Amino acid sequence: MRYRNLEECILDLEKHGHLVRIREEVDPNLEMAAIHMKVYAAGGPALYFENVKGSMFPAVSNLFGTIERSKFIFRDTWDSTQNVISLRNDPMKALKNPFKYVGTGLAARTALPLKKMSSGPSGFKEIQISDLPLIKHWQGDGGAFVTLPQVYSEDPEKPGIMNSNLGMYRIQLTGNEYEVNKEVGIHYQIHRGIGVHQDKANKLGQPLKVSIFVGGPPAHTLSAIMPLPEGMSELTFAGLLSGRHFRYSYVDGYCISHDADFVITGELHPNETKPEGPFGDHLGYYSLIHEFPVLKIHKVYARENAIFPFTVVGRPPQEDTAFGELIHELTGSAIRQEIPGVKEVHAVDAAGVHPLLFAIGSERYTPYQQVKQPMEILTQANRILGTGQLSLAKFLFITAEEKQPISTHRMEEFLAYMLERIDLRRDLHFQTNTTIDTLDYSGTGFNTGSKVVLAAVGDKKRELCQEVPEQLQDLQGFEHVNLIMPGIVAIQGSAFTTYPDAELEINKLCKAIQARGTLSSCPMIILCDDSEFLSETIDNFLWVTFTRSNPSHDMYGVNSSYSFKHWGCDNIIIDARTKPHQAPPLIPNPAVEESIKRVFAKGGSLEKISIS
Question: What does the H/E/C string look like for 437-473?
Fold first, then answer.
């Protein structure tokens, strides 16, 4: 299907059993988000909320909740879009296999945006922000947010749609100091295209015109989050994946999407910010209140029969996990073209995506040497950490495929392969006082923290422990020692207070372990608040360890030492305890959890969905 709008997609999903309507009135204050998360966790359908309390507009969520449903939505354009992206990444493919790519020219014809010369789109009416479904997702959120916006801006020095940026940056509609119906907040992070446009506008001393599209064909939503090849615009991709031109016109100098369900227009003025947040975010914690640009509202439009799409983010996995899988399938080969020798880069969803990367590279520098050590993969690691949003990572584990096939997506096997081969005195490489993800509060300040590359190649150096080693039992001041996976053990300590106290405490732990003899079989030890929880699943280990630690401050080592400024040790200890400066985790509201049971009960709209 080549949908002209969101409504056509919803009707198609419903016809094929991929969508359920919720008839009951549902409160956008916490209830809608709580229902969405229950249904997503159950692997359930897309949800159409017919009766949103306080709003004339219905809403839809979980459209992209499974990779299978996403592929169903894009079933008529998926292959041709993949082929066009593949050709942009590697044009020689057309020469090697011309018949496979013969249709890409026809597909590309629909990619170019199509300007409509009318004074504006027909079938739209002016509304106010307060008319929208004001959806608040978590009880600690600062207000209502738009979570699937397509935020459009143009280069002030080279205006026009082919020099535009379309990104997905959350929009705060209410709360804090925002003047209702006159202002909204735009939260954009570093490495975002709109920031380049606003910087240019600021230097010119002029406001930046911004249009926020909500809804429209699902391809338009996906295009706002796509990491595209150099030179391919988001609106070109929107045309490719929807199989239909992106249709637009300008009204009062603002770009208006003719296919969106809602359009919010306004200006970002130089140096004008307001407090934005908190917001329950995809790392599983709140992002806190910070100053972000404030959009001065010009006009708000809604199309006839408009439907408000939304998603809910929180501790992975959530619907944005399926987004990530979808993007990987469409653009998986791009990283291999951008960084020669790199075969895979996996931003680990269970760890919140940006904190942790697993990568497979190549070692081809010295094939004549008997003893191998990381060389080329260190060059590749630097390229990875210098590439777009991958540069926000804190931990990068990288190896090279040699005698056996490995995959970054078989995470326990990948970690075991690395831990069997890593030389902890040679293969740890730190970067300090650098940038990390805006949403990550484990660092030393806003956007700031550190990184570490763990690189390993060659033959096995050790057998990994299959149970808790004797040397880690009955250590004074530490308890509940549990095996997480071969080679990694969790130890529970007292609550973190300050870094000086932590250093004293962990140095004592290191000396106590060292005094009991070498412990080669357990290269990684995690100090935590709750070892039972951390060792219960591999996802718990990844989430706690890599969202609650800053490499420069929270990595310690048994028998550690420096050699010409290079730090190494016998065993790594990562302090993954909660720190006072970190953001609080997201916790469901018990009263809301109870109230939404009505839609899952017998006779309710979702009675056929089994929830925990």
Answer: CCCCCCCCECCEEEEEEEEECCCCCCCCCCCCCHHHC
DSSP-derived secondary structure for 259-271: S-SEEEEEEEEEE
Cβ density class 575-585: b for 16+ within 10 Å, e for less: bbbbbeebbeb
Give the pLDDT confidence score for residue 576 in this predicted structure: 98
**d(C-alpha 92, C-alpha 298), whole Å:** 47
Got the DSSP string for 134-166?
--B-STT-SS-EESSEEEEEE-TTS-SGGGEEE
- Please give the single-letter amino acid code of residue 270: P
48 close to 606: Cβ distance less than 8 angstroms: no
Q: Are 328 and 334 in contact (CB under 8 A)?
A: no
Asked whether the beta carbons of 268 and 293 are under 8 A apart, the reply is yes
Span 479-500, mean pLDDT? 97
Beta strands in 78-234 (DSSP E): 114-115, 124-127, 145-146, 149-154, 164-167, 171-172, 183-186, 208-214
> How do 19-26 and 46-52 pair as beta strands?
parallel
Tens digit of each residue's pLDDT (9 = 90 or more) over 577-609: 999 999 999 999 999 999 999 999 999 999 999
140: tokens are 């600690």
pLDDT in tens, 420-469: 999 999 999 999 999 998 889 999 998 899 999 999 999 999 999 999 99
Beta carbons within 8 Å of 211's beta carbon, 6+ residues apart: 151, 152, 153, 254, 255, 256, 257, 263, 264, 265
**pLDDT for residue 545 is more than 90:** yes
Is 26 exposed, middle or buried (CB count within 10 Å of its CB: 0-12, 13-18, 19+)? Answer: buried
Residue with tokens 């990844």, as numbered in its chain:
542
Contact 306, 263 (CB under 8 A): no
**How does DSSP classify residue 285?**
B
Burial class (CB in 10 A: 0-12, 13-18, 19+), 387: middle
**Is residue 143 within 8 Å of residue 184, measured between CB atoms?**
no
Whole-angstrom distance, CA of residue 181 vs CA of residue 142: 16
| 91 phi-psi bin (left φ>0, alpha ψ -120 to 50, beta other) | alpha
What pLDDT was estimated at residue 81?
72
pTM: 0.91
Q: How far apart are CA 576 and CA 525, in angstroms?
A: 10
Count of Cβ atoms closer than 10 Å to residue 230 Cβ: 8
**Which of 194, 598, 541, 227 lies closest to 395, judged by CA?**
541
Of 47, 14, 41, which Cα lies nearest the Cα of 308? Answer: 47
Strands 566-568, 561-563: pairing is antiparallel
Q: Describe the crossing of helices 78-89 and 319-331 by its angle, rounded to 10 degrees.
A: 60
DSSP bridge pairs for 209: 267
Q: How far is CA 374 from the centre of its chain?
A: 29
**Joined tokens for residue 354:** 């940006």
Residue 574 Cα distances to 443, 459, 527, 544, angstroms: 14, 25, 6, 11
